[in-house]
Queue: 4 jobs
Job 1
Amino acid sequence: MAVGRDKTRILLTLPQDLKEELTDEARGDNRSLNNYILNLLLSSEKRTENDRD
């Protein structure tokens, strides 16, 4: 699968129980695991920026 020029792939190692928990949360939010993790990171970044203001 091709990745856009403005994106990059990474290898992430997680404990199996954490991956299962995140997968369940992603399903509940109707997202893929990758998209769910990206959404969590972006939301965290926005909260951090708002806390600085």
Job 2
Amino acid sequence: MLHWYSPRGARRGLLLAGITAALWLGWALGYTQGAAAASAPPSSTPTKSAPVPCCLQQPRT
């Protein structure tokens, strides 16, 4: 029977395709995690607002 491909070449191609897919998947996961961290607001603890200086206080009515 005439083969259009060699079995060794097919295995090598599948191996290279698997390695390429694994590398791309690792890159994609790292990229999405980095993009999510960069777009998130900085995590800081909420602080109490500073008291208003006396000259800026509104008069009581």
Job 3
Amino acid sequence: MKKTILLILILCSLQAIAQQKLEIEIDNPEPRVGQKVTLSINVDFLNEYLKKELGKNINVTRSSSIFGMSSEDFERAIIFEKAKTYNIGPFDFEFNGKTYTTNTIEVNVLPKLPMENGLWLRQTEFEGQHYLILEQLISNTSNKTVTENGGYSHTIGGVMPEGKAFAELNEDLTQGIQLSNYSSATNSVTPDDGELFGVGFSYAIKKYKITFDEDYKGEYVISESDFNNLPENFDIGNIKLKK
């Protein structure tokens, strides 16, 4: 009986050693329905394989996109179509005689925002890291102009009104808590039932990592003084930051 148990443990250990562990990552810790999310898996082992096979006189560089960015990760854009919690992974595959397996991540997907002027702030946790996510919608105006030949030009969805600016959080909140704006994006959005050349909204999302000092204790409540460009008549809610 003891020999059988020992043999099973040895086989399990060999299997674990044979499997190479890879990490799945996403660029939005809590996306909404319809938002594009970049899912990436680190596959830098392919670089090592190519270097070995191609030889000493050939240099293997990172892949580049048309925007000049480069990466050693396998990346794909995914879109969630339903608000719920998803488990992504593990993925298993073989390459060049080795077995690779990924971790599993849990992704909480929220419903779409209502198409109206507003600002939404929420706190979330993903893979042990705390985040603040700030989203905002501002009604656009039309910039339609008539050209000399009788035609016209305009920006689809409209443009943000002059003098308007998106809100943002101060990164130094209080002693012992810091924010780092690790990702932000802006774009124009239109209602699903909107007209083809109708005016929509300017949308912004800012994602902040929350860092606590090791000796920080207590909690901090987000207030209006923690914002720049905060719109009028906005209810911040009761968001408490604590370790």
Job 4
Amino acid sequence: MNDVFGYIAYGDNEVYHFGALLSALKLLHNCPGAKIIVATDRPEIFRPYPIETITITADQKELMSFGWRYHFGIKAASLIEILKRADRLIFMDSDHYPYIDPSRGFRQISPTRSFMRKCEGEHRLYPVLAGEGVKIGDYTLTGHEPMWQSGILGIHRANAGALTEAYSAMLAVRELTNTDAPEQFCIGVALSRNGLALSRHHLPVSDYNTRGKKAFASPRVLQFFEIHGDVPIAKQIRKAGWYRLWRSPTDLWRQRDRWSL
């Protein structure tokens, strides 16, 4: 079985790229020999490491984003490309990272079973889709389907067609709802129909995906490579395994005046 861990990193914010790289190094510390593929418009960042890359060109980004009308289309289309190189794929956003070996998660993936980060329930704005005739495959969206968060995704190659059907519906959902969530919404729906089962993940993975967490972790991501970026890769992997991105009680106290943690 060709089991792959995947990341996607594109755009001008270096934290996305180096966050994905640091997460991959943590993964290699906890799961030596893991096969990792990163779809990116900055392949030179990852090239020195035991990481495979899929280059996303400027023309591809424009095409994947429906002419820049929905930039998360780049993520969805890149997922399809990574899945072409895997039998089972565990994808993590670049602000997620494992703290112990997550490879047991591949056992949760089969042609009929997928997982995502969590179910967020019905989105209050999405009932506007009712009666609009937007389809995922042969299923017509009502807008009352549950929203699944896509920071983590476990999927079998047998469901590549479901991802393609989800991608085909995203622009219409985007234009009708004027939200950023069509990517995860459409993927969640596509992986929940025609006898497919979708559940919450059970991976040993942490994240820094809130404003307070990002304010602490993002500078530390860049600092790691400023300090360790020139040392041998084996040493970088060891250092990354124990490098802290979570906040201590003291860090939380220092952020006590923030409106969002």
